[in-house]
Amino acid sequence: MKSSNIIKTIAQKLFPFITLFGIYLILNGHLSPGGGFQGGVVLGTAVILLFLSYGIEATEQKVKMRCLSILEEAIILFFIFLGILGISTGYFFLKNFLPLGRAGQILSAGFMPLLNLVIGIKVAAGIFGIFYILFKYRGEI
Amino acid sequence: MKKYISIPFLIIITIIIITSIGLEYGNPRNMEFVKYYLEQGLNDTGAMNLVAAVYLDYRVYDTLIETVILFMAVAGITFFLQRRK
């Protein structure tokens, strides 16, 4: 798969902005429209853009698929670990155990930013994993 | 033969499920929780975004299972496509 220099340059210039927008969506998930799922999809799409423009070999050097799959499996365990922390602080499973804080700030609403971050990483890894597997084992696009 | 045995069970389960649904959607008697979420959501969870308040606090089990479902999708795609080669 060959792509022209124009596509490569545009993808290289767009990548940090798309990543920044995804991180913004994830971190402001409890304040404004957005959240973990949407921000994760945006983050995954940024990596897919690099993938489509630079090809499979160049992206495999940058993004280690082994680390990505391990991260994707470990992040579910971290989610469940957060739930068990709710039990160990004296409440029930997945209780919002952190202090709520003042409404409207980034660090408020207890563990919601943390959960949004966990879900965002999970969804980004999942979306890119599905795309990578489909691309690698089903042939060229 | 096993296929035909399961058909009466399916019919019985379907009838039980259909007759046991007592919810009428749109009936204001059943919509009390909407008012509760709108009034008490900020006090209970501290989130400005009420959608986040619902899916990360009141219904957080659904979110947990939803992430597990995404993981299952990735695992299934990987399993079936890697065998093909």
Task: Report what the structure shows.
The complex is a heterodimer of chains A (141) and B (85). Helices cover 71% and strands 0% of the residues of chain A. Chain A has 141 residues and is mostly helical. Chain A has one domain. Chain B has 85 residues and is an all-alpha fold. Chain B has one domain (2-82). Helix content of chain B is 76%, strand content 0%. In chain B, helix 3 (50-58) crosses helix 4 (60-82). Chain B is flat and about 55 Å long. The two termini of chain B are 36 Å apart. The mean pLDDT of chain B is 81. The A-B interface holds A 29-33, 35, 72-73, 76, 79-80, 83, 94, 96, 100-101, 103-104, 108-110, 112, 115-116, 119, 122-123, 126, 129-130, 133-134, 137-138 and B 42, 45-49, 51-53, 55-57, 60-61, 63-64, 67-68, 70-71, 73-74, 77-78, 81-82, 84-85.
Number of H/I helices of chain B: 4
Q: Tell me which protein chains meet in the greatest interface and how many residues each side has.
A: A-B, 34 and 28 residues
Number of strands of chain A: 0
Radius of gyration of CA atoms of chain B, rounded to a whole number: 21 Å
What is the N-to-C order of secondary-structure elements of chain A (H for helix, E for strand)? Answer: HHHHH
The H-and-E topology of chain B, N to C, reads as HHHH
Q: Give a count of the beta strands of chain B, DSSP E runs of length 2 or more.
A: 0
Number of domains of chain A: 1
**Main sheet makeup of chain B:** none
Strand fraction of chain B equals: under 5%
Helix content of chain B: over 70%
Write the layout of secondary structure elements.
The complex is a heterodimer of chains A (141) and B (85).
Chain A: H1 5-27, H2 36-54, H3 56-62, H4 65-88, H5 112-138
Helix pairs in contact in A: 1-2, 2-3, 2-5, 4-5
Chain B: H1 2-20, H2 32-45, H3 50-58, H4 60-82
Helix pairs in contact in B: 2-3, 3-4
